[in-house]
Amino acid sequence: MSPTDDDHPTGHSAHAPGSLAHRVPDLGALQLLLAVARLGSLGGAARELGITQPAASSRIRSMERQLGVALVDRSPRGSRLTDAGALVTDWARRIVEAAEAFDAGAQALRDRRDSRLRVAASMTIAEYLLPGWLLALRAERPDTAVSLLAGNSTAVAALLLSGEADVGFVEGLTVPSGLDSAVVAHDRLIVVTAPSHPWARRRSPLAAAELAATALILREEGSGTRQVLEAALGGLARPLIELSSTTAVKAAAVSGAGPAVLSELAVGDELALRRLIRVPVNGIALARDLRAVWPTGHRPTGPARDLLSLTRV
């Protein structure tokens, strides 16, 4: 039978103000919902997750009250998702997959003495691509311990040349001296600004000369993003703000501090939500290759080779 009206809220709490943590179900609840969808049984989902069926039922009801919609129809024949439940399950799957990638990246950041693969990556790659690659590596080599060192492209080269990393990933225009490389992905830099900025309302594309003459929110010197932009424009004005991570540059742009040039990888959500506006530019090419790098003559083997096989274009 379907859940009773007492099992579900009127929907008022789902729209109440407060932090996102109070409005979005926790990961355990989302994993339970995914298990119910896959197995068609609340009891089976409970067993898979190692909890009792009453506890699983209580967690589903609590999630339904939190969201203000019925998610599961229960009957003697099993548990079936409602139409709303099927939609929520699709969203839940994306959140759980993102959490798994987050966990893989976070584990790699820990200083583990038994690490057998030391990875150095420039910031954009470390933030937006590497967690997914590490998650895939974990599936293929679950016993491989990985440590991650993140920095700009210049720092990555230094770590490899000093023997402190086994393989690296950079995003600059050139391969640092002493390193061999392979292209693993492609990227494009775009100009973005907050909706309140005059550039967000302009009708014609921005000229390269105007961009070059404008004080921008920029990454620090040595970053691949800045190298590509400076080479494309033939020089840059003094930075409006200089920051050491892609996330920090993005946050400053969203706040309305000024325009920035960022990887397409970094701003998809902000563009979709119109927290940032893409500004067309004429006369410059801002495409770039993302590369795996390693010391010349020492092509990666073992786990490093396996990681490269998961990243190649």
From TrEMBL:
Pfam family, one: HTH_1
Region of interest called Disordered, as start-end residue ranges on this chain: 1-20
Name of the protein this chain belongs to: LysR family transcriptional regulator
GO MF annotation list: DNA-binding transcription factor activity; transcription cis-regulatory region binding
Ranges for domain HTH lysR-type: 25-82
Gene3D superfamilies, sorted: Periplasmic binding protein-like II, Winged helix-like DNA-binding domain superfamily/Winged helix DNA-binding domain
InterPro entries in alphabetical order: LysR_HTH_N, LysR_subst-bd, WH-like_DNA-bd_sf, WH_DNA-bd_sf
Entry similarity comment: Belongs to the LysR transcriptional regulatory family.
Compositional bias (Basic and acidic residues): 1-10
Keyword DNA-binding annotated: yes
Membrane-spanning segments: none
UniProt organism field: Streptomyces sp. SID14436
SUPFAM superfamilies found in the cross-reference section: Periplasmic binding protein-like II, Winged helix' DNA-binding domain
Keywords, ordered alphabetically: DNA-binding, Transcription, Transcription regulation
